[in-house]
Structure formats: C-alpha cells, structure tokens
Design brief:
Chain lengths: 438, 327
C-alpha cells in the first residue's frame, strides 16, 4: 500500500507547484497550503519520518542543482521569482470605480529604500491613458517670452538630473482619522513609494521659455481622462521640481505617468501631475477642483486649509507589522521607514510601551532629503506584549506628532495629512495588530 | 486663458515671428497660438479662460438629466456611491460634514472648468462650451446659488459668488507641537486603546481563514477587464463572436462604468435575469437604444454611453459583447 505513494510524492509536489504557477498571490498561497497539507497528510501516513522533509534539504541534493536551468534571455524582461508574492493591493470599498481609485505599495515586503516600479502605489482620477511617446507633447506657454512645444526627444536633450525621492498621497493613513480601521501595514501606510527619478529640472525648462516678471504660478495639466490640473507656485518650480521621464533606471511606468510627469519632491503626490502635457505660467493660482473640492483640509470650525502641499515627517515600523508577525523569540531587529517632505530625517525614536518611554534607533543606509530612510533597533523578544511605536524627527527639528495632538488641532474630518505616530500591538504569540492609543 | 488669441490670429502670428528668439539652449519649437488655443482649456476665478457661449438653467436641466443624473442623481444627491453634487449647507462644522459644490466649493469657475475637462466621467471633454454653460448653471441652480431664470455667459458666470468662499485659508502648518521626550512622556493609566474592526480590510494574503479574501478590486468588477468581465467569461466558457471581440475594447472604455457594477438602473453585464427580456426585444431595438439613448423604466441610458466620438458600429459591437456575455 504505502509503496504506491512513496515514489510519486515528489511528482505530486511538482504537479501542485506547476498548477499553482498559473495562479496569482492569494489563490496560489491557499492552493499551496491545501496542496501541501494534502501531501503532508499522505507523507505522514505513507512515508518514514526521515523522508517527510523536503528532498531538496541537506543532505539531499536539491533538484535545481541536478540539471541545467533556462539560459540567457529566456525572459528578455525579467520578473520576480515565482515564489514571491509582491503585489499592489487595494481596499475595494474605498472608492466607487477603479478608474478613479487607489492601490497601495506592499511596504511590508520591501527591501531597502527603493520601491520597485511595478508595485508603486497607484492613484488616478480617470484611469491610465495609453500615451504614445512619439505623439506626446509638452506645451509651455502663458506669461513667457517663448512659448514652446517639446517632444520627448527635445526633452531628453536638456541637461538631466537623477534624484531618489519619496512620493506619497496626502490621503495616506486618512482612513484612520477617527479610528483604527485597516488590518495591514499595506493599507495603513502604503500610499507611499520611493524611487530614483530622472528628468530635467523645471527651472531649466523655465529658463528656456523665459518667465515674464509677473509670472508667479504654474498650471500643470495631465493628458489623462481627468485632465488632472494643479497650480504650483513658481518658488517650488525654481527650487526642486523635476519633469520626469525615467523611474528606477527605465522609462516611467504607464501607471506613473508615462512618458512624462511632474515630480514635486516632498509635496503631496497629487501635485506631481502625471502624463504631463501642458505648463501654463500665470500670475494667480487657478483654484481647480483638485485644490478646492479635494486636497483641502476641513477643520473642526468648518473652515478649510488650502495649498497644504508639504508631507510632514512620518514614520512606521515595517517589521514586525500585521503582515510580518514575530515568529521566534530571541533576537529581533525592529525595522522601519521614516520620511519628511521638509528634508532629511535626523533621528527616529522607538517606544515599546505606547509612548511612555522612548529609545533612540540607528539610521541605516542612505539618508537622503525627501526620501525613505531606514531605521533599525536591535533587541530581544521573549513573548512580552508590546505597544510598538516609532517617532521621526527631521532636520528642521519637527517631531512627528501623536494622534491626539493632531486630532486636537484638526478634528477628525480633514482626510489628508495624517502623519501621526502609529501603534502596533505585538501580542504574546507574536501576532501584530493595528491599534490606536488616545 | 488667452482665448482671445483665436480672434486675432493674423496679428499674433506676425508679432510672434518678431518677438520669438531662441532660448539659452535653443531646444524645442515655437508653440503656435493655434496649438495653444486647442489645449488651453483652463478657467480661473476671475473669469479668465471662460469662452464665448451661453447656456441657461432651463437648457441645463435636460442635458443634466441625460448626461449626468445617472451617476449624480436627478437632484445632485448622488446615485449609489457616486459623488453628491448638491446639498450639505451648514454641515461643515458638524460631525457629519457634507462637502458639495454648494456647501464647500469656493469658486464657480472651478465648476465650469471641471465639468468641461472631466465630465461626463466616461466621455471627458465631449461637452460643447454652450452645454457646459447650461449644465454648470443647472448644477448651481440645484445648489440654490442661482435661480431658474439664470442664463450663463462669460460675464454672468464670472460674477457668481459661492457661499463658502471666505472659509478657506492658506496652510498654516506646522500646527501640532510634539516634543522629543524620552521618559514618562505619557500616562499609561489614561490610555484608551482602540483596536481595528475585523473584516473591513482584505487580509486573505497574510491571514489564514480571514474570511476577507479580496486583495484586488473584486468588490467592483469594473476594475480591470481581467478581474471583471473576463472572469465572467471564463466561468461560463463563452466563446465570443468576432463582433463581440471587437466590442470588448469599446465596452471597457465607454460602457463598463455603468454596466459592470449595474449602477443607476443599468443592467449588469453577465446578469442573465436582468437581460433576458431585453434580449427578447431583438438586436435592432437594443442597438437603437444604445446608439440613440433612451429613458427606460430603470433609468437613463445615455446615447452611446455618453461618448459621442464612438461610431455606430463601435456601439453595435459593444452591444454584441454585452449580449453574448449575458445570454
């Protein structure tokens, strides 16, 4: 009896793996779990215990070492290993239609400060236009000496820059103004990404067209169905705005504005207009829909803040987090990201008791202005519950506020710019939950 | 802005060639007044950018009902979860603020600009200037900002004052002042710990038996044809005709917004019960309704889904696609 299954076990595993390959993420995981459980069940009945371990484990020779793998350019454009589950995800009930919606970056799975282009969070108001770069044009006009129309080839002739900068939707965390709602880091903080962006400084383009003395504002407009438009003050444009065509070493992804977008480092993502087709120089702001109806912050007295551009200092612990519970007692490196739209991160502190006492963490890797910055704290966990928090301090001396401090100022209905200290509740069994302390 | 350029193109072209000298790097070509005029669609609170044209509340009513009400509701109240456009006065400082054109928007120019550039949602930049004046006037009327006699043109529209204009002020952050304290910074006895409500978030990708499996846009199949329509297709193993295959792209572009979720009375694609008696009418009736639009018992089907740039054949192909999936 037992003999029937023994030789076929690896085959069965392989069959399960092959079938799972065609599935994505969730399906694959559940399928694998089910499949492996079934096999394990067979194994425990049919197979002597020693053989129940993977045939690829020492002292056995792993199967991938016993034959040749695929050769070069078997995949001219590579993709993540089939075992990885790196995905943008969304919370479908947040919006009414996918063409004006948001998906989030899987921060829990990121290694280092660069977000791979394929999982950078998405936010559109009219879907992703399919823009042909040969037919794409950028027109610069208005209060200028020389109105210009530029092709992509023209743009690439300008002196270029490459900068690593974060981009964040001002609604990041905005679902939690009035209470903890999201059960995962990807949804509490994932409207955030950090990439290397390549393009021409807007100040270079403005010198080329020659801004007239009364030119003080710039309308940036997209070539998407929403005709996305925002007013940008000239000071920002002359400071660090980039007109971007490259992202992480290749052309922008369609979701990120291919072939051309604006990037206003440190400012709310919506100002970084994608699929950029037009820049008009004027003497006043335009007060368009995305800077009046949306992206203004309603205060408890019924009045509202406008032009709330900067993303203030923020931080979050990415390991552990709900998606990455603690699995072992003993040594643990607590890791996370901090970022500030006002410049560099100066320090990040960590609390294990919900903000009563704080310790300094170590910043690691690159510490760049307006970029994700990694922090690390080494400690030991022996099953004690934690109320884990992180607190960022940026180079202006700004200290990331508590949720109570923010609510005292802004009430619970301002939607945008919720950058408060975040709390993970680590349980005795290592599971991690999103909680709020008030 | 600078729409007057259109009126005097000759003079301008001449001045142009005189004043234009190359920039410091000499890259790019001159943007001609014609090019600029086509793309320069923005409108500002002082009325700059409003074009010639005219439209009344009365004309706006019919246009709004045909092109907007299926999503935004007959009175701007919003169908289902689509945006609410009217009401909410006096709610902004309450615990249930309702931000609408009337209760929140500081400038009427924003309404003209936005409707003209982005609405109707499925057919942006399809409205004429006159239609935009009429519909904007009607939305203002729904908000009690103008009366039913109002006729909008460049002058009258620029004079409209919005009730909430004075209640906006420029960002005054940083507002909160936290200190970098290290010991006894809070009183743990006063802590109130609020936990997450389970089941609101997709968690199937990391929690076993979470019961909330969706991790893509499954709640609303209009997300991507992948997760929506083609799933219907796979489940039922339908082989599409050539016509229907051609229609799929049109459908994704111009019809799915209403027919995937089945909003505002639109029969859901793939919902056999909703389609059986419709299909019985015959393809000619269905095609006619889709091309010319009609008011049915369940709601308004706008002509060509509101996208007048589609050819009749495009629409007929899309109908074939919908019918084949719904039979």
């Amino acid at each position: 009896m037992g003999k029937i299954y023994e030789p076929s076990l690896p085959k069965l595993m392989e069959a399960i793996a092959t079938e799972a390959r065609g599935m994505k993420g969730l399906d694959r995981r559940n399928f694998l779990k089910g499949g492996i459980a079934a096999v394990a069940g067979l194994a425990s009945v049919q197979i002597i215990p020693k053989a129940s371990a993977s045939p690829n484990l020492p002292p056995n020779l792993p199967k991938w070492q016993s034959h040749l793998g695929p050769g070069v350019v078997s995949k001219p454009y590579g993709e993540p290993a089939e075992f990885e589950d790196l995905q943008r995800r969304t919370v479908p009930w947040l919006t009414v239609d996918a063409a004006s919606s948001i998906s989030m970056t899987p921060l829990q799975d990121l290694e280092g400060i660069i977000t791979p282009s394929g999982v950078v969070f998405e936010r559109y108001h009219g879907g992703i236009p399919n823009v042909n770069p040969e037919q794409h044009r950028l027109i610069i006009h208005g209060l200028v000496e020389r109105p210009l129309v530029l092709t992509m080839d023209d743009l690439r002739r300008f002196p270029s820059v490459s900068e690593i900068r974060f981009i964040e939707c001002p609604a990041n965390g905005g679902m939690e103004w009035r209470g903890a709602q999201m059960e995962a880091l990807q949804f509490t903080h994932g409207m955030l990404a950090c990439c290397e962006w390549t393009g021409v400084k807007l100040s270079t383009l403005l010198a080329e067209v020659g801004v007239k003395p009364d030119g003080k504002w710039i309308l940036a407009e997209g070539a998407d169905a929403a005709g996305m438009s925002r007013s940008i003050p000239l000071e920002k444009a002359l400071d660090d705005t980039i007109i971007v065509w490259g992202q992480n070493g290749e052309a922008l992804r369609p979701e990120q504005g291919y072939p051309l977008r604006m990037l206003n480092p440190g400012w709310e993502g919506n100002t970084s207009v994608k699929w950029l087709r037009r820049l008009e120089i004027g003497d006043q702001p335009w007060h368009h829909r995305e800077e009046t109806s949306k992206y203004t912050d309603l205060m408890p007295d019924g009045r509202a803040r406008r032009f709330t551009w900067v993303q203030e200092a923020n931080s979050v612990i990415t390991s552990p987090c709900p998606e990455k519970p603690l699995k072992q007692s003993g040594f643990v490196e607590i890791r996370g990201f901090a970022w500030s739209g006002r410049g560099k991160i100066k320090a990040v502190d960590i609390s294990f008791d919900g903000g009563v006492n704080w310790e300094r963490t170590e910043l690691k890797g690159l510490v760049l202005p307006k970029a994700l910055t990694q922090f690390s704290y080494r400690t030991t966990w022996n099953g004690q519950p934690w109320l884990l928090q992180s607190r960022a301090i940026d180079e202006t001396g700004y200290v990331q506020p508590t949720l109570k401090q923010l609510r005292d100022e802004r009430g619970g209905w301002s939607i945008y710019h919720k950058n408060s200290i975040h709390t993970w509740n680590v349980m005795e069994n290592g599971d991690v939950f999103n909680v709020q302390i008030s | 802005m600078f729409r007057f350029l259109r009126l005097i193109p000759l003079v301008l072209v001449m001045t142009f060639s005189v004043i234009v000298s190359a920039g410091p790097l000499g890259i790019g070509s001159v943007a001609t007044p014609e090019m600029i005029a086509g793309w320069d669609i923005d409108v500002r609170p002082d009325g700059t950018g409003l074009p010639d044209g005219v439209g009344s509340v009365a004309e706006g009513e019919g246009l709004y009902e045909a092109k907007c009400a299926s999503c935004h509701g007959l009175f701007g109240e919003g169908e289902g979860r689509w945006p609410v456009l009217a009401g909410g006065e006096g709610t902004l400082d309450t615990l249930h603020p309702e931000k609408t054109v009337g209760s929140y928007w500081p400038y009427a120019s924003t309404l003209w600009d936005y409707i003209h550039r982005a609405m109707p949602y499925t057919a942006p930049q399809s409205l004429t200037d006159d239609e935009t004046y009429s519909i904007s006037a009607y939305v203002l009327y729904l908000n009690d900002i103008v009366d039913d006699e109002f006729v909008a043109n460049r002058e009258t529209f620029a004079r409209v004052k919005m009730p909430n204009e004075e209640n906006f002020y420029v960002d005054n952050r940083p507002d909160s002042k936290n200190e970098r304290c290290f010991e006894n910074c809070a009183d743990p006895k006063a802590f109130e710990i609020v936990t997450t409500i389970n089941g609101l978030t997709p968690t199937g990708h990391f929690k076993e038996d979470s019961g909330v499996a969706a991790n893509h846009y499954d709640g609303n199949p209009s997300a991507a044809s992948e997760s929506g329509i083609s799933k219907v297709k796979n489940d039922t193993k339908i082989v599409l005709s050539d016509k229907a295959n051609l229609g799929k792209g049109v459908y994704d572009m111009a019809c799915q917004a209403c027919h995937n979720p089945g909003i505002a009375g639109a029969p859901k694609t793939g919902d056999k019960a909703a389609w059986v008696s419709r299909i019985d009418q015959g393809m000619d009736v269905l095609n006619g309704h889709a091309i010319n639009g009609y008011q049915g018992a369940d709601g308004v089907m706008p002509a060509k889904g509101g996208n007048m740039s589609l050819s009749n054949d495009d629409v007929i192909n899309a109908v074939a696609f919908m019918v084949e999936l719904s039979r």
